Amino acid sequence: MGRTIQLASQAKWTEVADGIHIAESAYQAQDWKKPRRIIMVRQEIDKRPKAAGKKIKKIKLPKQMELFPDVAELGNYRYSCFITSLTLPAKAVYDLYRGRADSENRIKEIKYDFSADKFSSQDFWATEACDSFIIMAYNFISLFRHAIINSKKSHFLKTIRYKILSIPAYLEKKGDKNILRLVKTMNQRQAFLGIWRTTENFDITRTNWA
Questions:
Q1: If you average pLDDT over every residue of the chain, what do you get?
Q2: Among residues 154, 30, 173, 37, which one has the least CA distance to residue 93?
Q3: Which of 37, 39, 173, 192 is the most exposed place for a label (fewest CB within 10 A)?
Q4: What is the DSSP string of the chain?
Q5: pLDDT, tens digit, for every residue of 17-33?
Q6: pLDDT digits (tens, 9 = 90+) for 100-141
């Protein structure tokens, strides 16, 4: 909270867009050999309500270091900052890093949906191997989500598993045919069958990854 108040106390804020202000300073942590450039951003919640984000109920977990902690809110503003070695103008730094903002969501998805933080190995190369398999699994699901589901909404793995992959079913033999009967309600069946039809015509050479 102390560092958040330091951000809020900055007097030289420059408005770069409606409800967005930028300031610049230098900060040196105890274990840093020299100060580093800090680009600070505050967003006015009344003008930019999406800046407040979604209120998520926090589950009590064992204390651990956060890779990407939540951005701090104070008063009517939401604050964030970028630590950079770039010499570009502050607005240019903000625009550059803002374009990478979705990377945090991808990292959180890998962490929570693919349990990237749930394995532990004393060997560095074993840990790297686990990481590689997790990233490979994530890439396969991303390809499936993009090329097969092809929805405007980007579903997380948990949703894909619940709606598509983990569906109760039983196999029935009728004459010389095997019939797979899926437990799927009528209002969900057409979308589900549409995904199956897409897989039949899927050709990886026609995707953007080819």
A1: 76
A2: 37
A3: 173
A4: -HHHHHHHT----EEEETTEEEEEEEE--TT-SS-EEEEEEEEETTT-GGGG----PPPP------SSPPPEEETTEEEEEEEE---S-HHHHHHHHHTTTHHHHHHHHHHHHS-TTS---SSHHHHHHHHHHHHHHHHHHHHIIIIII--SS---HHHHIIIIIS--EEEEEETTEEEEEE---HHHHHHHHHHHHHHHT--GGGSTT-
A5: 899 999 988 888 888 89
A6: 767 777 788 888 888 887 777 778 888 888 888 888 988 888
Q: What is the pLDDT of residue 111?
A: 83
Q: What is the pTM of this model?
A: 0.48
The per-residue b/e assignment along 68-102, b for 16 or more CB within 10 angstroms, e otherwise, is eeeebeeeebbbbbbebeeeeebeebbeebeeeee
Nearest to 40 by CA among 85, 4, 80: 80
